[in-house]
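Risk register update: the risk of archive-format incompatibility is retired. Evidence:
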Amino acid sequence: MGLYVEARIRAGIDDVWDRSQLPDRHQRWDLRFSEIDYLPCAPGEPQHFRYATRVLPLLTVDGTGVSAGERNRPDGTRTSALRFSSAHPLSLIEEGRGYWRYIPDGEELRFLTGYDYRPRWGRFGRVVDRLLFRPLMGWATAWSFDRLRLWCERGITPERSLCHALAELLVRIAAVVATAAVVPVAPVSVCAAAVLAVAAVALLLPPLPVTPAARRCLRRPPERAAGRSGSAAAPTALLATLEQS
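Archived output:
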């Protein structure tokens, strides 16, 4: 099952396009990548690129990709597609493909992506991917999309929004720790109930408007949610169309 994420951004299509297509801007807001660099290519050839993710301070997992196609339609919609792969032995992703779509909708822009990949490491890799890695990738994509939205709409830089997110996380953790430190004088059952209640509030309380949040993004194509089929839900078909154009 492929991943889908959509954000509605009150910004011009050119701003969102530049901040998602230019490597030096893309890598600033996308939590999935630490580095994105264009590789040399001859004029007229598809654009190749290298991406890297810092897993640990001294460990970086990298891969390469190629822009499979771009399309500007008369209605103002833009689409780009890409293929990517990694030969790094620690990369769970062996190869994949995806697309970006930019759809003007009144005063907003629907910015969405759909992508899928093949995990390595055999059956073990498929289990890890299904239970842990794929949900994490979906969350990271949605969180990053909202981070981009804050940058485009409010002028909050990705670096600043990350500070907001870390500060808010620390406050929520501190509230739980403070509760656990204050209520031990009560019976064990009361103490446990109080800590669980505060933890639930800390987990479910909506983030501040200046803090990125994955929950603000759609995680299913509107066409699928309404029981209809649509191109946004089919990255493979879209890629095939782009590659033939």
